[in-house]
Amino acid sequence: MEKEEIKQKIYDLVVKSTGKKKLKSSDIQKQISSDTGCSRDEVKDALKDLMDEGKLIYTYFGGSYVELPPNQ
Amino acid sequence: MPKKYETPMLDELEKGPFPSFVTEMKKAAAKSDMAADALGQLERCFKDNRTHWKHGGIVGVRGYGGGVIGRYSDLPEEFPDVAHFHTVRINSIAGLFYKSSFLKEMCDIWDKYGSGLTNFHGSTGDLVLLGTKTDTLESIFAEFSSRGWDLGGSGSAMRTPSCCVGPARCEWANIDTLDITYATTQEFQDEMHRPAFPYKFKFKTVGCAVDCNAAIARADCSIIGTWKGKIEINQDEVANYAKSGMNIQTEIVNLCPSKCMSYDGKTLSINDDDCVRCMHCISRMTKALKPTGEKGASILIGSKAPFVIGATLSWVIVPFMKMEPPYTEFFDLVRKMWEWWDEHGKNRERIGELIIRRGMREFLEYIGVDPMPQQVKEPRRDPFYFWKEEDLAK
Ligand code: HEM
Ligand code: HEM
Ligand code: SF4
Ligand code: SF4
Fold it and tell me: Which of B56, B240, B299, B342 is the most buried (most CB within 10 A)?
């Protein structure tokens, strides 16, 4: 699967969870790799891109989570 | 003119013989409104008998999931200059050797963007810069990274590894603690900056069991230097210690935890097979005793501060591992441990707690290490290994 496609799937998952459940990086890796069959390293790599582009951010509330940046 | 607060309660902490953080904070407050408000708010916390700091939220610069700890005042109207008061962690250098030129630059950067207050070093081992605002974080990161420095770890990630001064200054170092710390930092950049663990994970490396970095009490993975050969004894020096007033029987022999030493008033002998390499005798009789033979490290797992199940000390997983570059065996072991923790760990569960919850048997099987007597934490308790049918068939 193309990286861009994985990125889109990660982003959609985070959007869908917003306001319902805070996702950890490992939740995303497990979910996306079981949905798409790609390896967790590929998911990690796609997630890293989304972070570097500022599309997603890490937050901390007693543990580290992946979320949308504020005002978006 | 910076703000000034009456701080009668804090002033009490300047009395007495010890250096006082209040005195130091007052010096910073003379130059910085941020430091002044931090002092004002602290007095207020003491007066109200509760904290006015909030925690969480933002955690880093773009791309990073750690290195900055979000702090906010819950009294921002009264103390506007500490409405944001984030902590920045700078990855400290192995052994904590700084050039004075760096320290001067660091202070200039911090006076420009932050409160001027620092902490050398936090309990994780980072160089800690206390108090800045969200909108300065990218600039601070740019200033440090352009000089070759990086942020440290925070959150559910590998934390900045730390070590004792080791071979840089200490003759007892069985391993190159500085190199191991540097190599670990480089190998696991991703795990440090992009938090993906159930909770924090700390490495601390010390050259011998004297444990000058308290690795056994403070690290999820404690790497403790040890040796395989005999303790070489210089009997002339033993005699010198006796002559200068050391009671070798009570101070050395009786305190040997494995009772493997004896002394007949002239000659000291050691049954090396029973020695547990605790360093007691060697650190007391520096000139007389010296470890020899193959050098390496014991790998221990599990210590942490009190949280769910109280404080724990690390216990042995691998009694002896050669620790030489490129440390492939060690890094492979670490990756296996992380995989198991990632698979089964609950949110905010440290790896040691997980081992206690699910058992050593499953952990050892997964990481591919055989059960060994050295892994028994307390004799006559917790017979944690149960044989399976395949084992009995052998
Ligand atoms: C009476 C006041 C205070 C006391 C008694 C106190 C005590 C402590 C102690 C014992 C530690 C653990 C140190 C270690 O194990 O290395 C600590 C850590 C820390 N303190 Fe304080 N503290 C006080 C006020 C403050 C204030 C006012 C700030 C910031 C505005 C602050 C920021 C920190 C930070 C950021 C750490 C953690 C550093 C790290 O390990 O990463 N403390 N403090
Ligand atoms: C009543 C006041 C406070 C309490 C009860 C408290 C409690 C704690 C606890 C339980 C932890 C987690 C320790 C661990 O998991 O090992 C922690 C970590 C920390 N605290 Fe506090 N704290 C207080 C005040 C403060 C203040 C005033 C500051 C700084 C302005 C501060 C800075 C920190 C930092 C930097 C950490 C480390 C966070 C990390 O490791 O990610 N704390 N504190
Ligand atoms: S832990 Fe051992 S090797 Fe390291 S500084 Fe202390 S005595 Fe030396
Ligand atoms: S190192 Fe410790 S266990 Fe070994 S002989 Fe010395 S005191 Fe005994």
Answer: B299
